[in-house]
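We modelled the chain as a single entity of 243 amino acids. Its sequence is:
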Amino acid sequence: MHYKLALALATIGCTLAAPARADFSADFANVQGTGGASLTRIEVSGGHMRMDTGNGSMLVDANSGRILMLMHDKREYMDMGKMAQSLNAMLANVPPQMRDMMKQRMAAHGGGTVTYAPSGQTATVAGYACAIYRVTVGANHISDSCLADLSAAGIDAADQATVRKVFDDLRAMAQTASAGMAKSALSQIPTGKFPVRMTRYEDGKVADVAQIKSVNRAAVNRADFEIPAGYSETEMPAMGMHH
């Protein structure tokens, strides 16, 4: 899930002349596959950003830096900042030889090498001209994102600033969590773009395709950025070191 949410963060902006603040939301529809892991909605308002995908949602408060993952099927949430710190502490205590072994295993499974690069192909999706970026993990082609210019969506300067801050927070979290052992795709997502079509692959075949359905600048419900009533906090499961 984390890769898919990370790829959805191609909404990084440039400055445009606009009103002081206006909410923004974009809905996505699955056009191929089951859609269980596809991005369905992005919302930005007042320093907050939410991304929905499958049974999960990520909530980011750009003012405080708080990042939460909601797991709707379990009615639970996880503080991703705490998770990153826990992973960092765990990896910091790993002996050098074990770290080298972990890096080798990650590399063998493509976990240490992520690329997010232009394919040279372009398309038009729902009226948006976009460039197709290819995402690989090791030798595995895991997804494509067709990215349009952010200015085409009419996102105002305040919301663009929120998205930029969210991107920085998530990139910092990913670096903390991996303790420098893995390279995140977040650092390679181009600025000034937003996704209008996302294609996910499994075993070299298309598994899901989601594309933008609508863009709305009406007010976003503030409750969308809060932990729903009845959800309990869960922590990252203990992880053992196995040879």
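As a brief sanity check on the tokenised model: The mean pLDDT is 75. The chain has four helices and twelve strands.
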